[in-house]
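RECORD TYPE: inverse folding
INPUT: structure tokens
STRUCTURE:
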């Protein structure tokens, strides 16, 4: 097996986007946790404010390209890790080019599904580095160096995880509890019933040591946005990671989604989202919650629920002007900047 040796390669100098937000010379050390598009949104905003940035990413994905690589090679699912690296690429020719390279997906011709069909090149690159180095953390560090990423990316656990839950559905006029296993299936389950008793397997899976250390040393820990049951909650289901999040001296922020009615959370309110966090991690206290007013039906009720968790609600428009449920990087960065300043 080939082995990469020596120190990390030099990468092109990057420049932060200074769009009036104010890139801070004494910027806070931030750990952002989540997965998929939600984590990409928070990272795209946070990289405008600090270079002391660590992404801790879920590793329970079992669908698409990631799921195939996980099953065929026995590796951590690389997809959410790839998306986090792409989000940390700087807004330069170098960063934009490598972001597009990492996100590029192969498509077979003439409707014939080939072995590379729908694989993201970034997934293959990351797995290649893992096989050469034999170390997921080192492989992600090399990938980040190649991209000129502003920050680093870590898996939440050192082994692939499986997420499962019970879904209460109506069958033949009665209610029945059925078990749903796998992130891809559970992500769709809420549209047909109420998700409950979510858990990670193996239950005693080891958390990534580097992630635990980053959380311990951080100034801020930011959880969310993202799929509530399959991207946000898993960080509080892994025992070692939950303990680290509950005991860290860092301030804690929860970033809410831009819509409550997802396939996982149909019929849930913003307050219900907070209740899920409290139910699974009652000792997890927060300092701040960032939310767009469009998802808060009753401001007083929401602020009271946040206060019960020890925090303050920061309400402001953070969604894209396009009207879709997509966070705007500059607006979200401004919200984080103002929150940092308040503390």
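DESIGNED SEQUENCE:
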């Amino acid at each position: 097996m080939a082995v990469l040796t020596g120190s990390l390669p030099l990468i092109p100098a990057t420049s932060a986007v200074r769009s009036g937000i104010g890139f801070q010379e004494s910027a806070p050390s931030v750990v952002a946790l989540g997965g998929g598009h939600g984590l990409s949104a928070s990272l795209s905003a946070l990289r405008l404010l600090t270079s002391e940035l660590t992404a801790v990413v879920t590793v329970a994905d079992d669908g698409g390209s990631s799921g195939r690589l996980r099953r065929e090679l026995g590796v951590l699912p690389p997809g959410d890790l790839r998306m986090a690296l792409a989000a940390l690429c700087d807004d330069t020719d170098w960063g934009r080019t490598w972001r597009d390279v990492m996100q590029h997906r192969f498509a077979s011709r003439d409707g014939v599904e080939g072995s590379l069909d729908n694989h993201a090149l970034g997934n293959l690159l990351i797995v290649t580095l893992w096989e050469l180095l034999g170390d997921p953390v080192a492989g992600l560090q090399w990938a980040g160096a190649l991209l000129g990423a502003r920050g680093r990316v870590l898996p939440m656990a050192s082994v692939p995880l499986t997420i499962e839950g019970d879904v209460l559905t109506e069958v033949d006029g009665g209610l029945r509890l059925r078990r749903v296993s796998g992130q891809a299936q559970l992500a769709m389950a809420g549209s047909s019933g109420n998700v409950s008793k979510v858990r990670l397997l193996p239950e005693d899976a080891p958390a990534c040591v580097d992630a635990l250390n980053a959380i311990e040393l951080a100034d801020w820990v930011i959880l969310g946005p993202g799929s509530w049951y399959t991207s946000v909650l898993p960080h509080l289901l892994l025992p070692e990671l939950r303990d680290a999040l509950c005991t860290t001296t860092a301030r804690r922020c929860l970033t809410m989604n831009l819509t409550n009615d997802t396939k996982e959370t149909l019929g849930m309110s913003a307050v219900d989202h907070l209740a899920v966090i409290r139910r699974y991690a009652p000792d997890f206290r927060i300092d701040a919650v960032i939310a767009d007013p469009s998802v808060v039906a009753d401001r007083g009720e929401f602020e009271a629920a946040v206060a019960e968790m020890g925090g303050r609600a920061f309400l402001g428009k953070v969604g894209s002007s396009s009207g879709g449920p997509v966070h705007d990087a500059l607006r979200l960065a401004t919200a984080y900047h103002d929150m940092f300043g308040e503390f």
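NOTES: The first strand starts at residue 30 and ends at 34.
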